[in-house]
Specification:
Structural class: alpha+beta
CATH architecture of the largest domain: Alpha-Beta Barrel
Strand content: 15-25%
Oligomer: single chain
Strand order of the largest sheet: 19-18-10-7-6-5-23-22
CATH topology of the largest domain: TIM Barrel
Number of strands: 31
CATH superfamily of the largest domain: Glycosidases
Helix content: 25-40%
Largest sheet: 8 strands, parallel
Distance between the termini: 59 Å
Radius of gyration: 27 Å
């Protein structure tokens, strides 16, 4: 008996140790290094004299921001950390008539007559929104436009009113010292294939009857399905017939569908030329505007079917009805197929039932148009009229060689796009992002010297589940779960570091900017909207910001939507990531009315560095900001640090290497003029309450 009790005690001790170790592993972390303050000078904010930042004068002869030696720089050669934001989430949908994705009315009735004038916000409201963004520290904007907004009325019919509106909006941004780059946005090709981007007529020109997309399973469309709409189901459209076909035609139609012609031109050449010419109309209106620093190539492009190993497989993301690629073609061809319906659970995507897709045997192809993939010999019918897959690796092997989408299809498009943009202004930067689940190609140095790696990254687990966990996350680059607070932080840091390494491999010594990252504000079934407690959102968003900061990356947060509401979020496919909402409770300070996740979204950062950054971090809970950088010691050109009153309204102490401090209250900028060249350090701590 004594032996048994002794064993029980040992087991109890071991269990306790395991619990303690497990808790320590999952829930503890020490993300911020200690700072040696020896030799630093202490200055309190009340003893810092007033100063004035060196603002850009919007000189049309030079850009406000250029790329040089791997960094973004201002005209005084100071390194800029571009703390930017996407404007806006609702720019994906028309303004007049207003057709957010949850609305069924007017969706198909107005495909040629919609107007996007008023996206991202009416011109009369631009001053208030840009003033707010500037006050919050967002002085760089990724401005969303869509191909549909420019050319919705038909091929070659450009919306001149919209083009003049965009020009006027950017002039307003310049009035508020906000720089921009243009993002020709798309998701899963078009609003009519479940996303946004391309005009309706592109689908018709390819031979589709978009009215048949839903019943044939070619796309899942919020405007057709209505609410409730399954969260994050829209990306599954990348692997469905409509979007997969259009992207395949756009990038590789000449190889994979050589018989597909539009107005006697190959589908690939027709689509690419119309897309590039549409964006070129915007470029022509923006020529000579110094606050426009460049253009994105194509938001989150897809490979379509190109490179798929087997058409009998499913896409990576499984949610809702999920035909295989082959089943999608068969259903679109006018056949009934049995497919799995999936739900996303903690254990991963799970098939919950079988469903008959396209029971009425409708064809998604117009009567006057051929089924492109049957015409290409990808699939057909056997002697008993049953659908058969004839070439399962059709999109994997071409001309006896394994397909390389990045080099063979994306790269020529990106070069052609860059040439068109540079025909208007050769100094514009080209912000390029690879197709989903691929890397950028290696560009010729003469091309890449004007390029920026603008890849996207999201906290995958939080985005899909709309739940925040401090101890569970996903390594999106390796597609595997990670556990523990410290491990998640390191994983996120490594993800960002890999983007910088990719830039070096493919573009050389060029800047990296994370074009999108962010978190859902409607976490935990929108609990914060009623309670007013955004602690989870702040901690979750802060975790992503810290991954950017530990890599000294520039970025544009997703997003600021001027008409965001708690009921419908950003007005598109159930997403709600905007840091602003018209329904948010008023804060104690009028400066932050409408803000959400304020403590994380509005934060200090090194705005302009007279030198190059070595390391910086921000501890929002303790109100500590640290910056270390090298400097040439030019006493006339200051380093500027954005210090928002949100964190430092009661004052702050600065411990710093020898030099002079000034504070520009109007622009919320701490100015530091070092006494000598070398490594400089600034440790800023908010005054205790």
């Amino acid at each position: 008996m004594k032996r048994f009790l002794r064993i029980l005690r040992i087991v109890g001790v071991i269990s306790l140790v395991l619990v303690v170790l497990g808790y320590w592993y999952l829930f503890t972390d020490n993300p911020f290094p200690s700072v040696d303050t020896q030799g630093l000078v202490l200055t309190t904010s009340k003893n810092i004299p007033k100063g004035t930042a060196l603002l850009n004068l919007n000189d049309s002869t030079q850009k406000n921001i250029i790329a040089k030696d791997g960094w973004f720089r201002d005209p005084l050669d100071r390194v800029m950390i571009l703390h930017g934001i996407n404007v806006s989430g609702s720019s994906k949908t028309p303004f007049a008539p207003s057709i957010p994705s949850y609305q069924k009315e007017n969706f198909y009735e107005s495909v040629y007559t919609v107007s996007f004038v008023g996206r991202p916000f009416p011109l009369a409201e631009a001053d208030q929104h840009f003033a707010r963004l500037y006050k919050w520290g967002y002085r760089f904007v990724r401005l969303l436009i869509t191909w549909e907004a420019i050319e919705h009325a038909g091929p070659g019919k450009y919306d001149e009113e919209y083009l003049h509106y965009i020009q006027a909006i950017i002039k307003k941004a310049a009035d508020h010292h906000i720089n921009v780059f243009i993002d020709p946005h798309q998701d899963v090709w078009s609003r009519f294939s479940g996303g946004d981007g391309a005009p309706y007529w592109t689908l018709e020109k390819a031979g589709f009857d978009p009215l048949k997309f839903t019943e044939t399973g070619a796309a899942v469309i919020h405007n057709v399905e209505g609410d409730p709409f399954p969260k994050m189901i829209w990306p599954t459209n990348y692997d469905k017939l409509a979007a997969a076909t259009m992207f395949t035609l756009f990038f590789g139609g000449n190889d994979f569908a050589p018989a597909a012609k539009i107005d006697s031109v190959s589908a690939q050449d027709y689509l690419q030329s119309h897309y590039i010419n549409a964006i070129l109309q915007v470029a022509l209106r923006l020529k000579g505007m110094p606050n426009v620093i460049g253009f994105d190539t194509f938001n989150e492009p897809s490979t379509g079917y190109i490179g798929i190993h087997s058409l009998d497989s499913l896409g990576l993301l499984k949610n809702g009805l999920m035909p295989t690629y082959f089943q999608g073609m068969v259903a679109g061809g006018g056949n009934t197929v049995e497919v799995g319906r999936y739900e996303f659970k903690l254990s991963g995507p799970t098939e919950v039932e079988k469903v008959s897709l396209n029971p009425n045997r409708l064809s998604v192809w117009k009567k006057s148009a051929p089924d492109i993939w049957q015409q290409a010999g990808v699939w057909g019918y056997d002697a008993e009229k049953k659908p058969v897959l004839l070439q399962p690796d059709y999109f994997k092997i071409r001309n006896g060689k394994r397909v390389n989408f990045t080099e063979t299809y994306f790269k020529p498009f990106a070069v052609k796009f860059a040439e068109a943009i540079h025909s208007v202004d050769s100094s514009w930067l080209i912000f390029t992002e690879s197709a989903l689940h691929t890397e950028l190609p290696v560009f010729d140095p003469e091309v890449s010297k004007h390029m920026v790696n603008a890849e996207h990254w999201y906290d995958g687990a939080t985005l899909l589940l709309k739940e925040y966990s401090t101890w569970f996350g996903v390594d999106t680059q390796k597609s595997k779960p990670v556990f523990g607070k410290s491990t998640i932080r390191k994983t996120f840091h490594n993800n960002m570091a890999s983007f910088k390494a990719e830039t070096q491999r493919t573009l050389g010594n060029q800047p990296t900017l994370i074009g999108e990252f962010g978190i859902p504000m409607d976490l935990n079934e929108k609990e914060a909207f009623s309670s007013g407690n955004y602690q989870d959102q702040e901690d979750c968003l802060d975790r992503s910001f810290r991954a950017m900061e530990s890599n000294q990356l520039s970025y544009t947060l997703w997003n600021y939507t001027a008409d965001n509401t708690h009921a419908h979020g950003d007005g598109w496919n159930g997403e709600d990531l905007s840091i602003f909402s018209i329904n948010s409770d008023k804060t104690k300070s009028a400066n932050y009315n409408g803000a959400r996740a304020v403590a994380a979204a509005i934060r200090p950062y090194p705005y302009k560095i007279a030198g190059e950054p070595i390391h910086y971090f921000f501890d929002k809970d303790e109100g500590v900001f640290y910056l270390e950088f090298t400097s040439s010691g030019d006493a006339k050109i200051p380093t500027e640090v954005f210090l928002p009153s949100q964190h430092f309204k009661k004052g702050f102490d600065v411990q710093h290497t020898p030099g002079q401090l000034k504070f520009d209250n109007k622009n919320s900028l701490l100015l530091f003029y070092p006494t000598a060249a070398g490594v400089q350090r600034l440790l800023i701590k908010r005054t205790a309450d």
